[in-house]
Write a structure and sequence with these properties.
4-stranded antiparallel sheet; about 120 residues; Immunoglobulin-like; mainly beta
Protein backbone atom coordinates (compact mmCIF):
# COMPACT_ATOMS: atom_id res chain seq x y z
CA UNK A 1 0.00 0.00 0.00
CA UNK A 2 1.33 3.42 -0.94
CA UNK A 3 1.92 5.85 1.91
CA UNK A 4 1.97 8.81 -0.47
CA UNK A 5 -0.58 10.20 -2.86
CA UNK A 6 -0.99 8.39 -6.19
CA UNK A 7 -0.07 9.82 -9.59
CA UNK A 8 -3.31 11.32 -10.90
CA UNK A 9 -4.16 11.88 -14.54
CA UNK A 10 -3.70 15.46 -15.77
CA UNK A 11 -5.22 17.47 -18.61
CA UNK A 12 -3.84 16.07 -21.87
CA UNK A 13 -2.57 12.89 -20.15
CA UNK A 14 -4.40 9.53 -20.03
CA UNK A 15 -3.63 6.58 -17.79
CA UNK A 16 -4.23 2.96 -18.80
CA UNK A 17 -4.40 -0.13 -16.61
CA UNK A 18 -5.10 -3.58 -18.08
CA UNK A 19 -5.97 -6.51 -15.83
CA UNK A 20 -5.59 -10.02 -17.26
CA UNK A 21 -8.15 -12.29 -15.59
CA UNK A 22 -7.72 -15.04 -18.19
CA UNK A 23 -5.79 -18.28 -17.63
CA UNK A 24 -3.23 -17.42 -20.35
CA UNK A 25 -0.76 -14.62 -20.82
CA UNK A 26 -1.42 -12.06 -23.57
CA UNK A 27 0.72 -9.69 -25.60
CA UNK A 28 -1.14 -6.36 -25.73
CA UNK A 29 -0.61 -3.84 -28.55
CA UNK A 30 -2.37 -0.55 -29.24
CA UNK A 31 -1.91 1.07 -32.65
CA UNK A 32 -0.33 4.54 -32.56
CA UNK A 33 0.54 4.49 -28.84
CA UNK A 34 4.27 3.67 -28.54
CA UNK A 35 4.03 3.11 -24.76
CA UNK A 36 1.70 0.14 -25.37
CA UNK A 37 3.64 -1.94 -27.86
CA UNK A 38 4.24 -5.65 -27.31
CA UNK A 39 3.42 -5.52 -23.60
CA UNK A 40 3.17 -9.05 -22.22
CA UNK A 41 0.66 -9.46 -19.37
CA UNK A 42 0.83 -12.74 -17.45
CA UNK A 43 -2.34 -14.45 -16.27
CA UNK A 44 -3.77 -12.71 -13.19
CA UNK A 45 -1.34 -9.79 -13.56
CA UNK A 46 -1.71 -6.20 -14.76
CA UNK A 47 -0.06 -3.62 -17.00
CA UNK A 48 0.04 0.11 -16.17
CA UNK A 49 1.00 3.15 -18.23
CA UNK A 50 0.45 6.47 -16.44
CA UNK A 51 1.78 8.98 -18.99
CA UNK A 52 0.04 8.78 -22.39
CA UNK A 53 -0.15 12.10 -24.21
CA UNK A 54 -3.81 12.56 -25.15
CA UNK A 55 -4.63 16.17 -26.14
CA UNK A 56 -8.12 15.09 -27.22
CA UNK A 57 -10.25 11.96 -27.02
CA UNK A 58 -9.43 9.35 -29.65
CA UNK A 59 -10.21 5.75 -30.62
CA UNK A 60 -7.42 3.22 -31.13
CA UNK A 61 -7.24 -0.34 -32.46
CA UNK A 62 -5.81 -3.00 -30.16
CA UNK A 63 -4.75 -6.63 -30.46
CA UNK A 64 -4.45 -9.34 -27.82
CA UNK A 65 -2.17 -12.24 -28.79
CA UNK A 66 -2.48 -15.33 -26.60
CA UNK A 67 0.55 -17.33 -25.51
CA UNK A 68 -1.55 -20.50 -26.03
CA UNK A 69 -4.25 -20.15 -28.72
CA UNK A 70 -5.43 -23.73 -28.10
CA UNK A 71 -6.51 -22.63 -24.61
CA UNK A 72 -7.14 -18.88 -25.00
CA UNK A 73 -8.01 -17.23 -28.34
CA UNK A 74 -6.52 -14.05 -29.76
CA UNK A 75 -8.63 -10.91 -29.79
CA UNK A 76 -8.87 -7.47 -31.30
CA UNK A 77 -11.07 -4.41 -31.08
CA UNK A 78 -11.07 -0.69 -30.39
CA UNK A 79 -10.70 1.34 -27.24
CA UNK A 80 -11.40 5.00 -26.59
CA UNK A 81 -9.09 7.14 -24.45
CA UNK A 82 -9.25 10.73 -23.27
CA UNK A 83 -6.91 12.93 -21.29
CA UNK A 84 -7.35 13.77 -17.62
CA UNK A 85 -8.80 10.28 -17.13
CA UNK A 86 -7.60 6.97 -15.70
CA UNK A 87 -8.96 4.13 -17.83
CA UNK A 88 -8.96 0.52 -16.66
CA UNK A 89 -9.63 -2.49 -18.83
CA UNK A 90 -9.88 -6.17 -18.12
CA UNK A 91 -9.34 -8.98 -20.59
CA UNK A 92 -12.36 -11.27 -20.58
CA UNK A 93 -13.92 -13.95 -22.73
CA UNK A 94 -13.94 -17.67 -23.39
CA UNK A 95 -12.71 -20.13 -26.00
CA UNK A 96 -14.86 -18.34 -28.62
CA UNK A 97 -13.16 -14.97 -28.24
CA UNK A 98 -11.64 -12.35 -25.95
CA UNK A 99 -12.05 -8.61 -25.69
CA UNK A 100 -11.36 -5.68 -23.36
CA UNK A 101 -14.04 -4.35 -21.04
CA UNK A 102 -13.42 -0.75 -19.97
CA UNK A 103 -14.36 1.47 -17.07
CA UNK A 104 -13.31 4.92 -15.95
CA UNK A 105 -11.18 4.39 -12.86
CA UNK A 106 -10.86 6.48 -9.70
CA UNK A 107 -7.21 6.40 -8.66
CA UNK A 108 -7.37 9.21 -6.10
CA UNK A 109 -6.50 8.47 -2.50
CA UNK A 110 -9.64 7.97 -0.37
CA UNK A 111 -10.28 10.68 2.23
CA UNK A 112 -10.09 8.25 5.13
CA UNK A 113 -6.98 6.55 3.77
CA UNK A 114 -8.56 3.11 3.34
CA UNK A 115 -7.65 1.42 0.04
CA UNK A 116 -10.08 1.26 -2.91
CA UNK A 117 -11.23 -2.18 -3.98
CA UNK A 118 -11.31 -2.95 -7.70
Amino acid sequence: MQKTYPVLPEPGIAQVRVFNVMQCGYTFNVANIPQIENEFINSMQMFTEKQISMPEAATFSYTLESEDVALCPNGQGTLRLSGNTAWSFYIHGDINGVALQDYEDDVSKPRRGNPHLR
